[in-house]
TrEMBL record:
Protein name, entry field: 14391_t:CDS:1
Species this chain originates from: Funneliformis mosseae
Source taxonomy: Eukaryota, Fungi, Fungi incertae sedis, Mucoromycota, Glomeromycotina
Domain of life: Eukaryota
Amino acid sequence: RERKRHRVSEVTNEELERRLIVEEKAQHAHVRKKYLLRKAKETLNQPATRLSQRKS
């Protein structure tokens, strides 16, 4: 049992780093997609509203 646990902890550091990098990339892509979708919606629905909001 002890040996197994030790081996797991050895692997975990590398695995965790890899997973974190992958998750970070995925999250970044998701946020970017969300932002692009919102931007696309805006341009379709109300580009003038945004311009008028900037002036005030």
